[in-house]
Amino acid sequence: MADTTACDTLWSNTRLATMAGEGLGIVEDGLVAAKDGRILYAGPADGAPAFDADMEIDCDGRWITPGLIDCHTHLVHAGTRANEWAMRLEGATYEEIARAGGGIVSTMRATRAASEAELVATALPRLDALLAEGVTTVEVKSGYGLTVEDELKMLRAARALGEERHVRIATTLLGAHALPPEYAGRADDYVDLVRDAMIPAAVGLADAVDAFCEGIGFSPVQTDRVLHAARAAGLPVKLHAEQLSALHGSSLAAHHGALSADHLEYADEADARAMAAAGTVAVLLPGAFYFMRETKRPPVDLFRAAGVPIALATDCNPGTSPTTSLLLMLNMGATLFRLTVTEALRGVTVHAARALGLAHEIGTLEAGKACDLAVWNISEPAELVYRIGFTPLFSRVKDGLCC
Ligand code: DI6
Ligand code: FE
Predict the structure, then answer these.
(1) What spacing in Å lies between the alpha carbon of 216 and ligand 1's midpoint?
(2) Pairing state of beta strands 38-44 and 26-35?
(3) How many whole angstroms from its chain centre is CA 109?
(4) What pLDDT does residue 318 have?
(5) Of 47, 122, 196, 334, which alpha carbon lies 20 to 30 A from 131's?
(6) CA distance 196 to 205
(7) What residues have a C-beta under 5 A from ligand 2, the ion?
(8) Over the chain, what is the mean pLDDT?
């Protein structure tokens, strides 16, 4: 067997959407070979090396995409806000609910009261729902602890999820998510805590730092201090920006070389240009747009014109986006935000990888990257975007292992 190439697993008789290059990277008669958890080859069967595989999986013509990436979630949290939602449907206002102890503060109380193990246990069903749709990488934010210890507890719980399941977890410190009640009227003091205590303590536990730059969150000046501190600590930054109003947080994020700016309904042309120049990904969150009955759509045309990469994510959180379906976000990205099939699918693969600073590692089917795959029972890639509430996953592969 002189002229064969050894590999661990070979997926043959398959069609590929590699996401390499510009479009979907379609290969009609393809092969994927994995060795030591990495992609050794992904491309046409015709002209491929002759592989000597320990295991060969005949895919019977099924499609393979990169494992999907949910690049913005608040997956770890305790409690539920279903009752709050029910009250809102019966006419209660956000302020009334907040006064009755609801809103982010109710999730904060429940999260502070929960142990790390309880946070893991309550997050696992949500994680499993994502994995059942072919997700292999999930970003998880803190932001419901709002003390140094409780934020670290959330980050440890997020990391622990990666031990419990075959999934890559990217953690983000979101200490500047909301002002905890004990700091009422002292937002600058709380930002000092984030800057001087939380960020240094999160080094090694957080892969990035995020903040909520908004009228009901933190001002651009306060956000700037958080992002400065993160970069000084050597951590990449992301930002919740332009969700409810135009504060130009996305331009601020770009100024800090942010990996992503997220939500962006109120972003304008200058924001789009700044993001393009900095290589900052626009992470769009159609679940929150839908659930909050927002009517102002993010300026997709401006992002396209400026050349801003667009990603899609669930924003899974108990207040504004209680979804664990990234496939539904593909459909909503197309129906609500008018993304094309190619944009939607690149938004949960190659561009989502970039939003996490992991473009060298995941997001496309290319030799050298981690062998994270989703194998689908579909007749064409558009089916992943077209369907509503249907999961055509055949199998999921993380680091070369079927799981
Ligand atoms: N934007 C949101 O939509 C969520 N956080 C954020 O910064 C809301 C989180 C919640 O209501 O629990
Ligand atoms: Fe969010």
Answers:
(1) 10
(2) antiparallel
(3) 25
(4) 97
(5) 334
(6) 16
(7) 315
(8) 97
Q: For residue 277, which of 300, 306, 298 has the smallest C-alpha distance? A: 306
Amino acid at 159: R
pLDDT at residue 252 above 90? yes
**Which pLDDT value is given to residue 315?**
98
Model confidence at 99: pLDDT above 80: no
Model confidence over 12-71: pLDDT tens digits? 999 999 999 999 999 999 999 999 999 999 999 999 999 999 999 999 999 999 999 999
Q: Is the dihedral of CA 77, 79, 84, 89 positive or negative?
A: positive
Separation of 73 CA from ligand 2 center, angstroms?
Answer: 6
Q: Which of 371, 265, 355 is nearest to 73 (CA)?
A: 355
Provide the pLDDT for residue 2: 56
Whether 144 lines ligand 1, by a CB cut-off of 6 Å, is no
Residue 96 has pLDDT above 90, yes or no: no
Q: What DSSP state is assigned to residue 362? A: S
Per-residue buried b or exposed e for 307-329, using 16+ beta carbons within 10 Å of the residue's own CB: ebbbbbbbbbbbbbbbbbbbbbb
For position 213, what pLDDT does the model report?
Answer: 97
Asked if 236 contacts 357 with a C-beta cutoff of 8 angstroms, the reply is yes
Quote the crossing angle between the two packed helices 148-164 and 104-113, to the nearest 10°. 70
The pLDDT-based confidence of 385 (bands split at 50, 70, 90) is very high
Q: Per the structure block, which two tokens stand in for 312? A: 């899609």
* Atom of ligand 1 lying closest to residue 174 CA: 7
Helices (H) and strands (E) in the chain, counts: 16, 16
The radius of gyration computed from the CA coordinates of the chain, to the nearest angstrom, equals: 21
Would the CB of 73 count as within 6 Å of ligand 1?
no
CA distance 195 to 197: 6
Q: What's the pLDDT at 366?
A: 98
